[in-house]
């Protein structure tokens, strides 16, 4: 009886919340709010979370997905280009894993069509985790805690790399960041943005940034040339989309990055050479739009960009099942 | 009224729990249960948790305390010797941070008297995080989110290394692992241990292991020679306690490691050369006690050791406050 009464009370609060949301009038803008994650297979998400944090998917036993897509730091490593096995310097800036399910494809050059396909890449890349899919399967297959998890999720105890990347992708699909100030504004809350941020958004639209940075992920929907009006000067040898298509016309086309949580995902561009948002906005204006923003304008756009920081995924640090005597040993050195 | 009734209900449940605990008859043994952590300054613990996970305390921006004392993996890195800045190979196996507040001192050679003193070591060690205390202070001082946290905890906005290490130590003091099967047995639950584990514990006591591995941490209370009956053969150049005292008599004396969660903290010994518990028990028997355990006896002792795995610390992955334009940049390469 007591319990029931409490439930009614909670129901009333929920109903109030819903009706308030219903009262808000959503705006018709080229950027849409980030939807909440819908979890259809909780057990697979939990398994994927463990795998995402497990350095035993690398040769050294030291590097996990979270090493370069650190969920304490906006899903990035906040360095220009990543550190791989044996401290190898990566060729490109690690893109954020946050909201990555909203991108048209994965990697800067879009060479992976899906999160599942992406997840297999770094594991087997000699410059990153430097492992093989076969060894990753052998390691996990030797760990009873994992075998039980895979059996629960996939209905069989014999693991394969598809099951591993399915689970990692399922976890990554939950890594969305709703309810940024900008999204609250989009949903009708006039007080969610400062006047400066609102002016920045207006300028962002009027001067053409929104032509590429649009949709729920404020980017991630097309490949564009880095250096439209002026060429982009970089020490990086990355050629972008051309590496996938083989077409000369695709040289220096990169996937337009999401601007969601861009306050957290410094440094910027595929080579990580822009350290600050101010620098990035200035360079984008000149190279992509042929426009030199004033200091005041840059401040406005940066204020808008900072309003794109959403609620970060919150979850318990996973506890990993221990290896056994049969588990292949990591090889950190030599 | 409704709320009050619910509170009475919870109070009754708590009272029942307490009286059940009071009914259990604790055993008088040379090993005592791990006490629950008592948190006196929650804000300091939360700050310390962020710092523990923050790779910006390293030169590269890539290595955090959690890199080598991974709380997903028993507070260790599960490799023989750790990976430091620029992939340098560490000289010694990373001891677990779990229950480390119960040790008489920190590091294998006891060179740090406290967790606070220990915490400053790896940050400034050129082979580990390769930073300086001054730069660590500069980095955190440049981050408003941290300055606010430090102001809340210490009452001032001007940071120093003492405040940093105080906070890390406060977090580490919470990293205890109570309620292992063995502790439940110690508290009077006859069904908590298998017959094999109980036989293993009896043998552990009767054959002399408990002379060094005793107390709540099943170790951590003294320095002992590695290789009492026979010398320990190792490629490691570590001399142990002698490095601190300068005394020849202290060569190859190491702090007796805790056996709490030893199932999770492989590989074993200061050089990490024993991969399995079976191997470690066999070597310890021969070198320290002059006793060759049978396969059955080793199995019994290992079953006892696995009963020492306690409840792992459970907490939300911390979200770190972002750097600002003023934050000194990490230097991962060169």
TrEMBL record, chains A, B:
Q: Which InterPro entries does the record match to this protein?
A: Cyt_c-like_dom, Cyt_c-like_dom_sf, Cytochrome_c_Peroxidase/MauG, Di-haem_cyt_c_peroxidsae, MauG/Cytc_peroxidase
Note whether Membrane occurs among the keywords: no
| Modifications made to the protein after synthesis | Binds 2 heme groups per subunit.
Which keywords fit this entry according to its UniProt record?
Electron transport, Heme, Iron, Metal-binding, Oxidoreductase, Periplasm, Peroxidase, Signal, Transport
**Entry binding sites for heme c 1:** 65, 68-69, 85
Alphabetical GO CC annotations of the entry are: periplasmic space
Which positions are annotated as binding heme c 2? Answer: 209, 212-213, 284
Subcellular location, record wording = Periplasm
Q: Which GO terms describe its molecular function?
A: cytochrome-c peroxidase activity; electron transfer activity; heme binding; metal ion binding
Cofactor(s), names only, from the UniProt record? heme
Signal sequence span is: 1-24
Q: Which residues form the Cytochrome c domain?
A: 43-151, 195-309
Cofactor comment in the record? Binds 2 heme groups.
Protein known as: Cytochrome C biogenesis protein CcsA
Organism for this UniProt entry: Oceanisphaera avium
């Amino acid at each position: 009886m007591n319990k029931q009464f409490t439930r009614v009370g909670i129901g009333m609060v929920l109903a109030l919340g819903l009706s308030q949301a219903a009262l808000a009038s959503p705006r018709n803008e080229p950027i849409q709010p980030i939807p909440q994650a819908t979890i259809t297979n909780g057990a697979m998400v939990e398994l994927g979370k463990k795998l995402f944090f497990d350095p035993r998917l690398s040769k050294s036993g030291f590097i996990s997905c979270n090493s370069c897509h650190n969920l304490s730091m906006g899903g990035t490593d906040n360095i220009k280009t990543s550190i791989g096995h044996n401290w190898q310097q990566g060729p490109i800036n690690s893109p954020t894993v946050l909201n990555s399910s909203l991108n048209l494809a994965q990697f800067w050059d879009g060479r992976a069509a899906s999160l599942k396909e992406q997840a297999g890449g770094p594991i087997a890349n000699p410059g990153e985790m430097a492992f093989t899919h076969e060894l990753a399967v052998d390691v996990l297959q030797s760990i009873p805690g994992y075998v039980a998890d895979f059996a629960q999720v996939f209905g069989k105890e014999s693991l394969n790399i598809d099951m591993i990347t399915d689970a990692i992708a399922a976890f990554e699909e939950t890594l969305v960041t709703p309810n940024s100030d900008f999204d609250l504004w989009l949903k009708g809350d006039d007080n969610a943005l400062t006047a400066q941020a609102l002016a920045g958004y207006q300028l962002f639209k009027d001067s053409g940034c929104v032509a590429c940075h649009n949709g729920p992920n404020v980017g991630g929907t097309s490949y564009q040339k880095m250096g439209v009006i002026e060429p982009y000067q970089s020490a990086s040898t990355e050629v972008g989309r051309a590496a996938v298509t083989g077409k000369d016309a695709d040289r220096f086309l990169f996937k337009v990055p999401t601007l969601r949580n861009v306050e957290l995902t410094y440094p910027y561009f595929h080579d990580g050479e822009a350290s600050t948002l101010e620098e990035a906005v200035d360079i984008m204006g000149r190279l992509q739009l042929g426009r030199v923003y004033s200091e005041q304008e840059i401040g406005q756009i940066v204020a808008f960009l900072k309003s794109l920081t959403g609620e970060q995924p919150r979850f318990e640090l996973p506890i990993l099942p221990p290896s056994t005597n049969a588990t292949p040993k990591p090889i950190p050195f030599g």
